[in-house]
Amino acid sequence: MNNIELLILDIDGVLTDGRKYYSTDGLPFCKTYCDKDFTAIKRFRGSGVQVCFLSGDNVINEPMAKNRNIDFYYARGKDKADFVKDFEGTYNTTPDKMCYIGDDLFDSSIMSIVAHAYCPADACRDVKSICGTDNVLKNKGGNNVIMELFDVLYDRGLVKDCTMQDIEDLDKNEKF
């Protein structure tokens, strides 16, 4: 059985390198995501770990999440820690079975509540401090961070692996 029941992912600076491309209207229109990380998300899901996104950008990230059948929570103007109670009910789990990965100050509050807090190598100093040296990953945001996280949690016995068939079944239900 998995010790991690819910994986909560920040997106910008974790699945992306944190860069946004803006149009003349001042709104972002493009980001670059690491596709291998989406395979890693399927590995988590195939092994029984529930996955959701928690992001302050719903313009680009929410449609991306919808196309990949991943729950999306919009956090702009909200304390991300306030979502933990909702997650407990929605996913039938507790903070000691939750894992969060983030990179910026907006992630600090929730990272202080969940039992398993991780960050990419290029996270801000305050976030790295919350995670501790063992939970700062080697990869930078947008560069296979979720793939590395899966391997770390698997090696620590916190998640189990799944079959290729599990991954393929999840892949069939995505639009991208």
Question: What can you see in these coordinates?
Answer:
The chain is an alpha/beta fold. The protein contains 7 helices and 7 strands; from the N terminus they run βββαβαβαβαβααα. It has a 5-stranded parallel sheet, with helices on both faces. Strands 2-3 form a two-stranded antiparallel sheet. Helix 4 links the parallel strand 6 (about 100) and strand 7.
What are the SSEs and their pairings?
Blueprint: E1 6-9, E2 21-22, E3 28-30, H1 35-46, E4 50-55, H2 61-67, E5 71-74, H3 83-91, E6 98-101, H4 108-111, E7 116-118, H5 125-131, H6 145-155, H7 164-172
Parallel strand pairs: 1-4, 1-6, 4-5, 6-7
Antiparallel strand pairs: 2-3
Helix pairs in contact: 1-6, 1-7
User: Largest sheet at a glance?
Assistant: 5 strands, parallel
Number of helices: 7
Series of secondary-structure elements, N-terminal to C-terminal: EEEHEHEHEHEHHH
Number of strands: 7
In short:
This protein has about 180 residues and is an alpha/beta fold. The protein has helices spanning about 35-45, 60-65, 85-90, 110, 125-130, 145-155, 165-170, and strands at about 5-10, 20, 30, 50-55, 70-75, 100, 115-120.
Name some characteristics of this structure.
15% strand, 5-stranded parallel β-sheet, 176 residues, alpha/beta, two-stranded antiparallel ribbon, single chain
